[in-house]
């Protein structure tokens, strides 16, 4: 019964998921928090949003005055051809200042500001989408490590079981109760099991490296401490509705369409007149002449009326309208993609839940069958090959159960992502939630300064 005991131990490890009550367990919540704080993809997306924030300040500068100062130094030489000839030389210095205050720019500034603000909202939703992707990848890597560790343990148990079968076959052969064929069959299955074990170890190392890539942590004793079921809606229709209303990818495309609409209006404003208030002051210093200093100042209203711009602006408006049409089409495409993503995730989750129940039954039945075959072999009613085949059935059933448990957990978080619910706030992660509007507000009305709000 040694081989039977090994198989029962392997079954227990598979069903229990190799989770022991350990206070130092590395939880899924901790993994999510580490990814949220450290993942470079997420930090990259936050940096991109801060870059886009500056477009609001750039657009608002269209309403602000511009002040220029000029200094010119001129060397002048004059000569009169006469009898006698005369000439003079002077070196005037001209100091000037000019201030221009836009009063009306064909609504270009207003629409540019609206376009910039809409672009910031779109980029903010893209950040949310990146956050969802990072957390989903973290969950997948987390459960991949758990699954691959279970697979490695199952493969090791299988190798131990087959080693016992090889030893038993050799003992029977030595006493004349078995054949060399029985020994060879057992050795062949053992060699195959060792090969599968090596592959499983390689896959485990790969999954642990992936986990570290997303979280920055070395995989420890992983334990899932989140009840995903409480986040799953009761019906597919509810999941679809949530995804259509909340998914950040859809919201980002809606804001992109708004941005494109404001850009059309901005370009159309170039056909309208512009009005500016201009103030100039100038001082000329020329000690070489009789008048050593001359001051002058002026204030004027400059009205510019565009008549023909070579067709450039017209082409830009048409191009912007096509871009607006493209953005609106992208909204429909993204909605369809999210809907398909939601339905697929829902189906995979439901299938995995049902598969777990049937897989547990299959493991139990395969284990009982193995025990029976081993007993029948003892009384000569079964061969070594029958035992090996029955053990193979047990391992296959255990691997199916492990895969189904992993698929259920990953499908649950995939469904949450499709619904737009996979983020740090909804999961109540123990992290300081990134507030992108703080940077937006800090730079929105910034009139000058080269340092970023964080001091760079």
Set out the fold topology.
Blueprint: H1 2-16, E1 26-27, H2 28-38, H3 40-60, E2 66-73, E3 76-80, E4 86-90, E5 93-104, H4 108-174, H5 180-215, E6 222-223, H6 236-246, H7 248-268, E7 274-285, E8 293-304, H8 312-378, H9 384-419, H10 436-444
Please state the average pLDDT score: 87
Domains counted in the coordinates: how many?
A: 1
| Low-confidence region ranges | 1-23
**Shape call:** elongated
Instruction: Please identify the top-level CATH class.
Output: Mainly Alpha
Rg is 38 Å
Strand order of the largest sheet: 2-5-7-8
| Strand portion | 5-15%
State the distance separating the first and last CA atoms.
Answer: 71 Å
Strand count, sense and closure of the main sheet?
4 strands, antiparallel
- Helices and strands, in N-to-C order? HEHHEEEEHHEHHEEHHH
CATH 2nd-level architecture? Up-down Bundle
Count of DSSP H/I helices? 10
CATH superfamily: Outer membrane efflux proteins (OEP)
What is the share of helical residues?
Answer: 55-70%
What does this structure look like?
The chain is α+β, with helices and mostly antiparallel strands and 456 residues long. The protein has a single domain (2-17, 24-63, 107-272, 317-444), classed as Outer membrane efflux proteins (OEP) (Up-down Bundle). 64% of the residues lie in helices and 13% in strands. The chain is built from ten helices and eight strands. It has helices at 2-16, 28-38, 40-60, 108-174, 180-215, 236-246, 248-268, 312-378, 384-419, 436-444; strands spanning 26-27, 66-73, 76-80, 86-90, 93-104, 222-223, 274-285, 293-304. It has a four-stranded antiparallel sheet with strand order 2-5-7-8, with no helix packed on it. A two-stranded parallel ribbon has the order 1-6. A hairpin with a 5-residue loop joins β3 (76-80) and β4 (86-90). α1 runs parallel beside α9. The chain starts with a helix and ends in a 12-residue tail after the last helix.
């Amino acid at each position: 019964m040694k081989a039977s005991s090994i198989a029962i131990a392997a079954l227990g490890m598979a069903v229990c998921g190799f989770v022991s009550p350990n206070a130092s367990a590395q939880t899924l919540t901790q993994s999510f928090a580490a990814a949220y704080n450290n993942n470079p993809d997420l930090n990259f997306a936050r940096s991109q949003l801060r870059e886009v924030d500056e477009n609001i300040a750039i657009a608002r500068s269209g309403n602000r005055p511009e002040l220029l100062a000029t200094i010119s130094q001129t060397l002048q030489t004059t000569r009169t051809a006469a009898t006698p000839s005369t000439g003079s030389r002077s070196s005037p210095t001209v100091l000037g200042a000019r201030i221009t205050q836009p009063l009306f720019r064909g609504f270009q500034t207003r629409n540019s500001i609206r376009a910039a603000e809409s672009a910031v909202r779109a980029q903010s939703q893209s950040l949310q989408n990146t956050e969802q992707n990072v957390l989903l990848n973290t969950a997948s890597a987390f459960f991949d490590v758990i699954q691959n560790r279970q697979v490695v343990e199952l493969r090791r148990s299988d190798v131990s079981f087959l080693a016992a079968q090889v030893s038993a076959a050799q003992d029977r052969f030595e006493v004349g109760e078995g054949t060399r064929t029985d020994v060879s069959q057992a050795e062949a299955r053992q060699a195959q099991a060792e090969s599968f074990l090596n592959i499983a170890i390689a896959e485990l190392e790969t999954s642990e490296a992936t986990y570290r890539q997303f979280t920055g942590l070395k995989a420890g004793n992983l334990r899932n401490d989140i009840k995903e079921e409480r986040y799953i809606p009761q019906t597919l229709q509810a999941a679809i509705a949530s995804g259509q209303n909340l998914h950040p990818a859809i919201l980002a495309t809606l804001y992109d369409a708004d941005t494109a609409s404001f850009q059309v209006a901005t370009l159309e404003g170039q056909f309208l007149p512009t009005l500016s208030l201009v103030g100039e002051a100038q001082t000329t210093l020329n000690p070489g002449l009789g008048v050593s200093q001359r001051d002058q100042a002026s204030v004027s209203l400059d009205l510019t009326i565009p008549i023909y711009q070579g067709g450039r602006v017209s082409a830009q408006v048409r191009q912007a309208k096509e871009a607006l049409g493209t953005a609106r089409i992208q909204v429909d495409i993204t909605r369809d993609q999210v809907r398909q993503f939601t339905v697929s995730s829902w189906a995979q989750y439901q299938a995995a839940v049902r598969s777990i129940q049937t897989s547990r039954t299959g493991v139990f039945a395969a284990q009982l069958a193995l025990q029976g075959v081993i007993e029948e072999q003892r009384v000569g009613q079964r061969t070594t090959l029958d035992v090996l085949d029955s053990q193979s059935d047990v391992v296959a059933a255990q691997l199916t159960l492990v895969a189904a448990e992993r698929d259920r957990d990953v499908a649950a978080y995939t469904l949450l992502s499709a619904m737009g619910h996979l983020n740090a706030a909804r999961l109540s992660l123990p992290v300081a939630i990134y507030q992108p509007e703080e940077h937006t507000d800090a730079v929105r009305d910034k009139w000058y300064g080269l340092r970023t709000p964080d001091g760079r």
